[in-house]
C-alpha cells in the first residue's frame, strides 16, 4: 500500500491527505490530458484550411476602389512602399497562394470581389495593374495562365 502524505490545499490552506497511488494517478491523468491536447492541436494545425478566413467577405471593396486614399494604401502595402493595415498584411501574405492555386481557398464572395478588383484595375487603373503584375508575376506566369479571364474583363 502507498505511503500517506499530507498536503496543504492551494486556496484554503487546510491539510489534505494524499497517498502515493492517488498522486501517481493524478500525474498520469495530467500527462494524458496534455498529450491529448497536443494531438488535437497537431491535427488542427496540420490540416490545411479549406477556405481563407471569411472576414474579408464583409469588406466593402467598392469603397476601397472609389477612394484614392484607401486604394493607394493597399497598393503601397502590396508594393512594400508603405505601412500595411491588418487586412492589407493578410492580403499580401495570401495573394501568392491564391494566384498559385487559382483562388481555390477563396470563398465565393472573395472570388466575386477579386474579379471586381481585377476588372477595375485593368480598365480604370492599368498603371497599378502593371505595377502589381510586375511584382507578383515577374515571369508572366499568371498573366499567361489567366489570359482568357483577363481579356474577358477588358472594356473595349
TrEMBL record:
Report the superkingdom from the record. Answer: Eukaryota
Q: Where are the transmembrane segments?
A: none
Q: Which SUPFAM superfamilies match?
A: Chemosensory protein Csp2
InterPro entries referenced in this protein's UniProt entry, alphabetically: A10/PebIII, OS_D_A10/PebIII_sf
Pfam families linked to this entry = OS-D
Please give the PANTHER family that the UniProt record associates with this protein.
Answer: CHEMOSENSORY PROTEIN-RELATED (PTHR11257), EJACULATORY BULB-SPECIFIC PROTEIN 3-RELATED (PTHR11257:SF12)
Question: By what name is this protein known?
Answer: Ejaculatory bulb-specific protein 3
Amino acid at each position: 500500500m502507498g505511503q500517506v502524505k499530507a498536503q496543504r490545499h492551494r486556496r484554503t490552506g487546510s491539510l489534505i491527505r494524499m497517498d502515493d497511488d492517488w498522486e501517481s494517478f493524478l500525474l498520469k491523468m495530467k500527462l494524458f490530458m496534455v498529450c491529448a491536447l497536443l494531438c488535437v492541436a497537431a491535427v488542427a494545425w496540420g490540416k490545411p484550411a479549406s477556405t481563407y478566413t471569411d472576414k474579408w467577405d464583409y469588406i466593402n471593396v467598392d469603397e476601397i476602389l472609389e477612394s484614392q486614399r484607401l486604394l493607394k494604401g493597399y497598393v503601397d502595402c502590396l508594393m512594400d512602399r508603405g505601412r500595411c493595415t491588418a487586412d492589407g498584411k493578410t492580403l499580401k501574405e495570401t495573394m501568392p497562394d491564391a494566384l498559385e492555386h487559382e483562388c481555390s481557398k477563396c470563398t465565393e464572395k472573395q472570388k466575386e470581389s477579386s474579379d471586381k478588383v481585377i476588372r477595375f484595375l485593368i480598365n480604370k487603373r492599368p498603371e497599378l495593374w502593371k505595377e502589381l503584375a510586375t511584382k507578383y508575376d515577374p515571369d508572366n506566369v499568371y498573366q499567361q495562365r489567366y489570359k482568357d479571364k483577363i481579356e474577358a474583363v477588358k472594356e473595349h
